[in-house]
Design brief:
Elements (H helix, E strand, L loop, with lengths): L2 E5 L5 H10 L3 E6 L10 E5 L5 H7 L5 E4 L8 H19 L2 E6 L22 H18 L5 E5 L2 E3 L11 H9 L3 E3 L9 E3 H13 L7 E3 L8 H12 L6 E3 L2 H8 L3 H5 L5 H4 L7 H7 L6 H14 L1
Parallel strand pairs: 1-2, 1-4, 2-3, 4-5, 5-6, 6-10, 7-9, 8-11
Helix pairs in contact: 1-6, 2-3, 3-4, 7-12
């Protein structure tokens, strides 16, 4: 059993901590407030994730250091660089493997299924921030200063998902009630969705397998589908009325962005929701022998969690 330090206890970090603790590992969760899962096998520590000295001390003797942090969406450009730099420094000083929870923003607008070999060609601010984070970690890895890897997923869904997820309360409440559902996306475009427990398993896998280090990986992700099809299938599984799904007009989204920093930031990544946005996770699946959770299983477990909250 090893020591695993997780920075962040949100929809991914918290579940990762619980899974590692169940496996008998020493688990430390780091958040600004000292919050985290109330599990006797988990130590919760209050610390600033941009404090490299503090993080290095916490990570001393750790086998892996996980970046599961998630700054406020509209403040990525300000908050991510010092946090990423501190995590990189802490990994270098402690010798822990740096495992980054990434996303697909770094690729920028795409016209084909995304693989890990595609260039990081983001044109937007948030995509450039994520691309720089990985380039810095990879450079340190190639220089022999750290061992680093990154796990990238598409839009998350599943038990424990945050309120910003596409299948959050704003989606599930009207679906279960048979009311119209409006989404900030073209509901008929193919779009990959990544199941949170698959993200957690992927992070735990790459942390201890040296084949994973020095490159990014896509989380095992089910075949892309459409928001409309997913809504219909979820309603069928839940015994709810057939859903009525429509897109929120772009002009409405832009107008709402005048008052909401979060909605304003969505303009930069609008390309992800008005054209096919498809993940190819075959490299991870074939290398580690880990397939994605079947979509029906994932949807049933999501509905069970949502109803039990």
């Amino acid at each position: 059993m090893g020591k695993h330090v997780i920075v962040g206890s949100g929809q991914v970090g918290g579940q990762l901590a619980e899974m590692l603790a169940r496996s008998g590992h020493e688990v430390v969760v780091v958040t600004r407030s000292g919050s985290g899962p109330a599990d006797p096998g988990i130590t919760r520590v209050a610390a600033d994730a941009s404090d490299a000295d503090r993080l290095a001390g916490i990570a001393k003797g750790a086998d892996a250091l996980y970046n599961c942090a998630n700054p406020r969406y509209h403040e990525w450009a300000r908050d991510w660089p010092p946090m990423a730099a501190a995590l990189l420094t802490a990994a270098e000083r402690s010798g822990a493997v740096l495992v980054v929870t990434g996303n697909l923003y770094g690729y920028g607008p795409v016209d084909r299924p995304m693989t890990e070999e595609m260039p990081l060609a983001a044109t937007g601010t948030k995509g450039k921030v994520r691309a720089t984070m990985w380039r810095d970690a990879l450079a340190a890895h190639e220089a022999g200063r750290v061992r680093a890897t990154e796990v990238r997923g598409s839009d998350f869904f599943g038990p424990g998902m945050s309120g910003q997820a596409i299948f959050s309360d704003r989606f599930l409440k009207p679906l279960m009630a048979g009311k119209p559902i409006r989404v900030p996306a073209d509901p008929d475009q193919p779009h990959s969705l990544t199941y949170i427990p698959d993200v957690v398993r992927a992070l735990a896998t790459v942390a201890v397998d040296e084949r994973a280090w020095g490159r990014p990986w896509h989380v095992p992700t089910p075949p892309a589908t459409t928001v409309r099809h997913l809504a219909e299938r979820m309603a069928e599984l839940a015994g709810a009325p057939a859903p009525r799904v429509s897109a929120i007009p772009h002009v409405v989204m832009r107008a709402a962005g005048l008052f909401s920093p979060l909605l304003r930031e969505l303009e930069e990544t609008r390309y992800q929701f008005v054209r096919p946005f498809v993940v190819d996770s075959s490299a991870f699946e074939s290398t580690f022998g880990v397939p994605p959770t079947p979509m029906d299983v994932a949807l049933k477990q999501t509905l069970t969690w949502w109803r039990a909250r």
